[in-house]
Amino acid sequence: MISVMLLLCQACNEENSVYRDYKCYFVFDMSLHPAPCHLTSAMGNTGHFLIVKAKLASGIRHIVTTRNYDHAEETVKLSAVIENQTRCLLGANNAIIIGRSSYTGLIMAYEGQCANCLSDYGGTSYPLTWSDNGQQLYCSHCKRSYDVNNGTVASGDPGRQLYTYNAAFDGTLLRAWN
Hints:
Distance between the termini: 25 Å
Structural class: alpha+beta
Strand content: 35-45%
Number of strands: 13
Helix content: 10-25%
Radius of gyration: 15 Å
């Protein structure tokens, strides 16, 4: 009961700060992709985050992930009918960052582009990459680094924290949305 209340409170707080300039709608069914799938494995481990992108190959959607702690990339074919009938929108430039905070244990989802550069310059050419052993996300344009566990600026000029999306995991479905 306490867990449910915490999730509801988190959802209320996040609803006011959720980034809405670009659509995000991501659903990943862990029951169709058991471990060692990167996304499935990450949900059970605090501090594990992934950059998630989508691509279409031969009419079939694939999810491409890059882990924070070892930069390993994985491509997961979404071949179940239900997976290909569900929309997949991944923010400003087809990328979100999702994982479980080592500070709070909560599932976090961020826009995959630098919040400060998106706001200051527009466009979608400001992808974030892993740095500091995967504990930070780096923008090569403005030279800021962000703490992946809470989205705050960790180094570089002060500024906005990472844009966040709603995120939830019920033990089977991982979701990110705005």
